[in-house]
């Protein structure tokens, strides 16, 4: 695997990891089972244990910080074997207030064989953690009476008003007759005597008024001990009969020295009322260097355990950014064609081409006709072509080098659009047996996607022809039309095109569109070929015979070719012809060739406007008969805006028909204003004026007819097939050189 493929694989692997972990976070916050009022059960257990008990013991731990290596694996086993009645966290039991942190803490506390209570600390408050603490455990400040002991928990984070807490504390203790009182608060009211690692003013109780009022209450009500956890150390001070203990060594980062080390505090109350406390220190190593390294490792290990989701998210996101930055800075890009490519080895031998298309003959449309002409042109110059296309009939006739794929679903009134069974194993087997040199894709989805998959399996280059403006077909898609039109269609084309090795477009305006949406693969502008010579071989007798069969007299004839579908804008043409019929004295007919699911509705509209003798829906005409119909006309009218080229316009020009069309991406490149036709904005008045001009000015019409035929001469099928063969050869040369 080369470096580029490795980076690509790494990029997508990290993208999947990020998506999965974000999904997991969403699950935790929205769908995971609720945790509620855990303190309620713990208080009941503690009260039951201490009822009528003269002596008892409990442990105080501070700064658990979701530690697994230290608290869960080292301290909890000691606590479970130490004959304790309960455990109290002095604060910072979690490393942050996120959902994953609280759920990880719950898993850790489940290993305790004795009840527990938590103090609300800075980490519990972080990132909306106050709401989770309240839901999962209970109030931020509270008090319980267990036996003859009062346990008091205060909030030093600023989340709760300290004035309100002090008023509540005084009211509580004024009426309290408990023998012993222990107070737990995240931030210590006294600074320790030792040197403080990572000293931060915010790690001490503030404001000063809160500190002074609390110290006064502690002295007034004879509180036995005050525990806090605001610093990663152990400190004990005596003030007016009360012991102030800072215990911050149950997890997280410590320096592993004489001041900052892993530990917990045990409190024993004897039957005679004596209160004592003892320090339980956990040794990590003997040598000072080993102590520091082991301490650092435990911190990193614990951080990873509790924050593994965030840790992996951060690492994956950084990798994504690094890969993108590497590609942007160090992977060179040559925005010019490779002029050293030598396609001659592939031009000197017949090529085997497999084509994948979602529609094909006998379905009549621009794409099937274009594919059939390309196939014939390539075969005439010695290449061999395999067509993979839908089956339109239950009876499968033997066709040379056409692989028909059974349909799963048909759409449209005429069942013209087929969703085929692309999962048949025989498709891959047949294409593999054909041994193609190159694979040509004519649609960016379904059979086109299958063709792209097979090209990768067989390690053959894929060429994609962008035939159709996909966004104009939103009405066929079972999605919100604006979503598909404005976003999905362009993203689909871009993604598919960038997976192919070369792109063929019929016009320069289409190339501009693909570049604008972000297609970065080589693009070749190659207009679709037309059967120019066939148009020149139509005799006057054939035209006259058709004229008589249609009952046409001396009126002028407009020809149009279009599928009867919404994206072809036929209603616009009907309204414009109705307007023209009201303001000209000359007789004319418009013959619209084509079928589609809108035929019945359009016919009703034509009849409602009284145009049934003027606007004729001819229906489908076999491709071999189209030349005669074109030669019957005097001008060609077109209103579709969904074309990438408008192949029928070139065919009409080859028959000597000047064109009036609505301006769109595929029209601008083939209709030269005032030379071989007119192109107007989608405004009925302007379009109708140009049609009337050709209808009434015979000299102008004949002049433009000559120009149209001259212009179309350069678009013959022979030239088209030869140019496509050169594109195949160039693509093969480029891919083989990678």
Question: Describe it for me?
Answer:
By secondary structure, the protein is α/β, with parallel strands linked by helices. The chain has three domains: 39-282, Metallo-dependent phosphatases (Purple Acid Phosphatase, chain A, domain 2); 344-525, Glycogen Phosphorylase B (Rossmann fold, 3-Layer(aba) Sandwich); 538-715, 3-Layer(aba) Sandwich (Rossmann fold), CATH 3.40.50. Helices cover 43% and strands 17% of the residues. The protein is built from 25 helices and 26 strands. The strands form five sheets. Strands 14-13-12-17-18-19-20 form a seven-stranded parallel beta sheet, with helices on both faces. The chain has a six-stranded mixed beta sheet with strand order 4-5-6-7-9-8, with helices on one face. It has a six-stranded parallel beta sheet with strand order 23-22-21-24-25-26, sandwiched between helices. The longest helix has 28 residues, at 3-30. The protein is elongated. The two termini are 13 Å apart. Mean pLDDT is 86; it is low at 301-306.
Approximately how much beta-strand content do the residues carry? 15-25%
The rounded distance between the terminal residues' Cα atoms is: 13 Å
Strand order of the largest sheet: 14-13-12-17-18-19-20
Q: What is the CATH topology of the largest domain?
A: Purple Acid Phosphatase, chain A, domain 2
Average per-residue pLDDT, rounded, comes to 86
Give the fraction of residues assigned to helices: 40-55%
